[in-house]
């Protein structure tokens, strides 16, 4: 979809106009075919609209001679009006779209038909009663003389209440409908500028240290074997670096140790949030060094086999123990070949196309080959066991502790809610000593789904919620899909005689204000055995130490922030005080040792309307808790975006968005989510969002994001531009 700014014609020179006309001609020929005209069906297909009403209306207005087809000249005239025309020309076109019967005015039934099509174009589902309410709200606001019809002048006056809309009015359509425009590139700070250093200093220092250490290890090992030739020097240098990498790479995945480090001052120095990226980087380095190490030895073996003094052939040197190479029965060569094959298998199965395309099990099981690799490495190199001693011991202890803790006592899933977009909401009985912080995650094992598989999920409940742990799981892979389908068909549900009593007890003890209303078929009580391993810390632990936190969740990426927002709600209620005499309520200062927040901006981006149902009850409760505060005094501000909804600048949505604004202003409630916060159509304009955050001057800004990697790159670039710290949730 493309949005073309108004006034382009004022700045376009003759050359650009000619280029645009060539573009339109080319696109017309692509759509029209040999007959050189476009009929209604071709127009609908090219316009790519969901509701035929707008396609038919636009076609009728483009077809100026009423022939039932659109010629190239008619298309150029129509596009010139919509893209290069002044606001009044565009408004006249919009009025003609709304005036279905062509009598020069818009009656309520015509307006309802238009708004119904607007809803379908924006993928918004509302009951007929709400559609009638929106229609009447917009009609009564525009029909100033109460004549029962909206004239052109009244529509113009109504649009003027929405600044900027008339000037930017256009049609978002297929690529052929808009001229080629110069796309502005996102400003990206150059490396080593102040903004870049602000967000990457710890990573850059660690990378420099890592590189320097490799240069030192390579140089020392190579110089110690300089008398044996260049191939041996390269092989030994790479081997020494591999000793370090193959032992230290496991340290980056010691989750309990990393969680503990987050509580120390080292969290300010070490890039703990990038442990997975560094683990992946070391994996690439290991593969590269291994290949160079192997090639160097192959060259050396080839030279030895050609030597007259050698009694071994090349294949014997490479594949057998006969030459006696190595410190354990001459196993260096065979173990080296086995190591390279295992490494390449692990590397291939670790690619994103394997992990993210429903084949996580392949990644998981092949990654366990690190155990035989360590055994082979000990047999392969005489010094590797020394490098592995400390990290291997710590790794072994962490695994044993995790296994003991997770298997100490089986827990039970006591309640399941099946939410829209195939999201499974699990309520697990909380163990007595399970202490976690907002935003932490755990590993979950459900034997009835897969006996040996453990998968990480963010905890979506607050630590203050004592009886249960909440998990919201999006169905994206084989395991998560099996989980959702098993509850949907009730195959796993173990109904015992006390399940309702137990559930009622937990409901009363927790108050359960956050769960949305669900139909009985999507809500089940159960008693299913499961195991958990954790909790483990994430970058979101920094939130309560921030001054101004911006939380951005895309889709199910809200889950870590759901825990944080609930925790904020509990802390907020704890500080609320009420005078027993006059019932006046006030808040004690929200700053303390654990919580330094001055302001929280929460931004939730969803594609579909129903996704908001996941946590709408929680957000409603948060708004209610702040209802008595002034706008300036509220420390939590919500921002909702629905990307499938068309913006106000689109002719296929402007009427709907105006009506939604009017009803929201009247009812103090959004028609899409039911929140006081108005749901904005389309994607956020990040420049405007961060400009507003910077202008509030509530302290140092830290941005926390959970969602797609593509959006993370965009946000990181904007944060570097504005000098904000950026943290991405990943595990």
UniProtKB/TrEMBL annotation:
Xref: PANTHER family: NADPH OXIDASE, NADPH OXIDASE 5
Compartment(s): Membrane
Keywords: Calcium, FAD, Flavoprotein, Membrane, Metal-binding, NADP, Oxidoreductase, Transmembrane, Transmembrane helix
Record's bilayer topology term: Multi-pass membrane protein
Predominant localisation class: membrane
Lineage summary: Eukaryota, Metazoa, Chordata, Craniata, Vertebrata
Protein name: NADPH oxidase 5
CDD domains (alphabetical): EFh, NOX_Duox_like_FAD_NADP
Domain spans labelled EF-hand: 50-85, 86-121, 130-165
Recorded GO MF terms: calcium ion binding; superoxide-generating NAD(P)H oxidase activity
Species: Phyllostomus discolor
Gene Ontology biological-process annotations: defense response; superoxide anion generation
InterPro entries according to UniProt: EF-hand-dom_pair (IPR011992), EF_Hand_1_Ca_BS (IPR018247), EF_hand_dom (IPR002048), FAD-bd_8 (IPR013112), FAD-bd_FR_type (IPR017927), Fe3_Rdtase_TM_dom (IPR013130), Fe_red_NAD-bd_6 (IPR013121), FNR_nucleotide-bd (IPR039261)
Residues that span the membrane, as ranges: 204-224, 230-254, 281-305, 325-350, 362-380, 549-572
Gene Ontology cellular component list: NADPH oxidase complex
Domain FAD-binding FR-type: 406-542
PROSITE patterns: EF_HAND_1, EF_HAND_2, FAD_FR
SMART domains: EFh
A Pfam family per the record: EF-hand_6
């Amino acid at each position: 979809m493309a949005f073309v700014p108004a006034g382009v014609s004022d700045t376009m020179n003759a050359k650009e106009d000619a280029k645009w006309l060539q573009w339109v001609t080319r696109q017309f020929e692509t759509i029209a075919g040999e007959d050189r005209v476009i009929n209604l069906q071709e127009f609908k297909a090219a316009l790519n609209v969901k509701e035929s009403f707008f396609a038919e209306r636009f076609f009728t207005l483009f077809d100026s001679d009423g022939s039932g087809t659109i010629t190239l000249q008619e298309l150029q005239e129509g596009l010139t009006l919509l893209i290069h025309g002044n606001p009044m020309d565009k408004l006249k076109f919009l009025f003609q779209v709304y005036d279905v019967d062509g009598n020069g005015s818009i009656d309520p039934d015509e307006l309802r038909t238009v708004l119904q099509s607007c809803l379908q174009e924006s993928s918004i589902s509302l009951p007929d009663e709400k559609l009638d309410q929106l229609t009447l709200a917009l009609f009564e606001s525009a029909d100033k003389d109460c004549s029962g019809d909206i004239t052109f002048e009244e529509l113009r006056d109504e649009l003027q209440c929405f600044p900027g809309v008339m000037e930017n009015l256009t049609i978002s359509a297929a690529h052929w409908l808009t001229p080629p425009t110069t796309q502005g590139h996102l400003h990206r700070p150059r490396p080593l500028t102040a903004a870049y250093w602000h967000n990457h200093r710890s990573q850059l220092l660690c990378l420099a240290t890592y590189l320097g250490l490799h240069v030192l290890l390579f140089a020392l090992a190579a110089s110690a074997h300089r008398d044996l030739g260049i191939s041996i020097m390269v092989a030994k240098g790479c081997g020494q670096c591999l000793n370090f990498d193959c032992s230290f790479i496991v340290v980056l995945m010691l989750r309990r140790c990393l969680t503990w480090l987050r509580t120390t001052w080292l969290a300010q120095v070490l890039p703990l949030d990038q442990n997975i990226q560094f683990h992946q980087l070391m994996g690439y380095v290991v593969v590269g060094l291994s290949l160079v190490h192997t090639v160097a030895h192959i060259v050396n073996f080839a030279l030895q086999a050609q030597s007259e003094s050698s009694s071994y052939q090349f294949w014997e040197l490479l594949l057998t123990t006969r030459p006696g190479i190595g410190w354990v029965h001459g196993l260096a060569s065979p173990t080296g070949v086995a190591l390279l094959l295992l490494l390449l298998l692990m590397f291939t199965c670790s690619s994103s196309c394997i992990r993210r395309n429903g084949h996580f099990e392949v990644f998981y099981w092949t990654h366990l080959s690190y155990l035989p690799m360590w055994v082979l490495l000990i047999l392969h190199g005489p010094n590797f066991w020394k490098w592995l001693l400390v990290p291997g011991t710590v790794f072994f202890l962490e695994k044993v502790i995790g296994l003991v803790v997770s298997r100490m006592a089986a827990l039970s899933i006591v309640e399941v809610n099946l939410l829209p977009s195939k999201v499974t909401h699990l309520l697990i009985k909380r163990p007595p000593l399970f202490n976690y912080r907002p935003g932490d995650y755990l590993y979950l094992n459900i034997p009835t789904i897969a006996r040996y598989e453990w998968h990480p999920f963010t905890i979506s409940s607050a630590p203050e919620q004592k009886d249960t742990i909440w998990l919201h799981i999006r169905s994206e892979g084989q395991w998560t899909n099996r989980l959702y389908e098993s509850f949907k068909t009730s195959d796993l549900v173990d109904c015992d005689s006390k399940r309702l009593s137990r559930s009622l007890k937990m409901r009363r003890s927790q108050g359960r204000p956050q769960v949305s209303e669900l139909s009985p078929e999507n809500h089940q009580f159960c008693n299913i055995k499961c195991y958990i391993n954790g909790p483990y810390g994430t970058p979101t632990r920094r939130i309560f130490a921030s001054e101004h936190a911006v939380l951005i969740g895309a889709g199910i990426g809200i889950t870590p922030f759901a825990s944080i927002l609930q925790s904020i709600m509990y802390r907020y209620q704890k500080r609320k005080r009420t005078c027993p005499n006059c019932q006046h309520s006030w808040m004690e200062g929200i700053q303390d040792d654990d919580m330094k927040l001055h302001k929280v901006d929460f931004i939730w981006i969803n594609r579909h309307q129903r996704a908001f149902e996941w946590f709408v009850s929680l957000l409603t409760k948060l708004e209610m808790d702040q209802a008595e505060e002034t706008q300036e005094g509220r420390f939590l501000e919500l921002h909702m975006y629905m990307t499938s909804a068309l913006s106000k600048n689109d002719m296929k949505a402007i009427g709907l968005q105006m009506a939604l604004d009017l009803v929201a202003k009247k009812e103090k409630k959004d028609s899409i989510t039911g929140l006081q916060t108005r749901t904005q159509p389309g994607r956020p304009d990040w420049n405007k969002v961060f400009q507003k955050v910077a202008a509030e001057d509530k302290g140092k800004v830290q941005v926390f994001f959970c969602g797609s990697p593509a959006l993370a790159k965009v946000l990181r670039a904007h944060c570097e531009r504005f000098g904000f710290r950026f943290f991405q949730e990943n595990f």
